[in-house]
Structure formats: C-alpha cells, structure tokens
Design goal:
The chain is α+β, with helices and mostly antiparallel strands. It has six helices and four strands, in the order E-E-H-H-H-H-H-H-E-E. The protein has a two-stranded antiparallel sheet with strand order 1-2. The chain has a two-stranded antiparallel sheet with strand order 3-4. A hairpin with a 4-residue loop joins strand 1 and strand 2. It binds zinc ion (ZN). The site of zinc ion has 7 residues, from loops.
Amino acid sequence: MGAVRLRLATPTHVADLRGATVCELATPDQVDAVIARLGPDPLRADADPDRAWRRIAKSPRSIADLLMDQAVLAGVGNVYRSEILFRHRVDPHRPGREIRPQTWKALWRDLLLLMPIGVQLGQIVTMSDQVDAVLAGDFDPSAVPTSPTGVSAWRPNPHGALERRYYVYKRQGEACRVCGSRVRMADVAGRNLYWCGRCQRRR
Ligand SMILES: [Zn+2]
C-alpha cells in the first residue's frame, strides 16, 4: 500500500495525516497488538523510556537509525531526530550500544519537552531561543487547540507562526550555527539525516 494522505477539514480547522503507509480498520485487540509492537511514545504520559533504552543499549545500529525505528521509539520524525542529536551534540553514527545512559536520558527528556510544544503549536520548534520564548509565554501554546486524540489540529495561528528555522535540518552545505563548519547530510534509515561533524562528537 502506498503512502496515504488524509485531510480532515472543517471550515476553521485542518488536520493532515501524512506519511502513513497502512490505513485499516482494526478491532480493539488488533489495536492493542499494534501498540505493543511500538516503542514508547514521548507524547504518552505512561511511556517508559527504559523500554527504548533496552533496545538501544544492545544495538549495533546507529543512534540516528534507531531513533527512526518505531519499534524502538514511537513518533519521533525526521526533523526531531536530526535536531535533538544536534542539541545534545551526539554523533549520529554512534552505535546504540556505545551511547551512554545519561545521553539517552537527556535525549528522552528533551523529547518530552519538545514534542508537546510541537503538537500544541502545530509547528516543530527546536532552537533554544524559540523554545525559551514558548516557555516564557511570549507565545501561548494554549491558544492553539489540539484534538482530543492528541493529534495536532492545525489552524492559522492568531499570533503568527514562529520563524521556521532549525539547527541542522535541511541546512546541508550551510554554516553550522554554532561552529561555522558545513552542515552535512546523508541517508540514514531511508530519510535524510542532517548533522554537524564538528559539533556532534558525544556518545
Ligand atoms: Zn557545528
């Protein structure tokens, strides 16, 4: 089945489902079985980061690859992958088994911070100054409604969207905002990974 795009629209709200590869009717038992195959979802209050860590800590696959694997961790898309690895200066090519536990804890904590902001704003925000502005209340996340399912219900923001800028995402060839060296790009797990080879050395 190809990629499904679904748009749910009302006169004032639009919700887009993008990139889903399967869309089918399921019984509650089938839904439970699907969820059981997924890694913890940072947007769920009951998510257990240790479940993801147990898989990461023994894996020879790179952390950038693992972050895109829904069986390891649910819901982290390509933008967050590149951006959180940069935020923590983590080498994206390090095998999961070489990642330090405290690095994983920091990445997880960051996802718990960033992903709800993204859902509420309907916009991925990763740059520290913008995150700080959101948290300081310069931009009111509660002004942007979310649907009861937790899926973001996008609408034109009355405050105007934040400037769309990232540390590394889609900035290949441009200067790293921190060190000035060129941002790199490579295909990892079927999607383009962006990173700074000079800044991102941690494991
Ligand atoms: Zn850099």
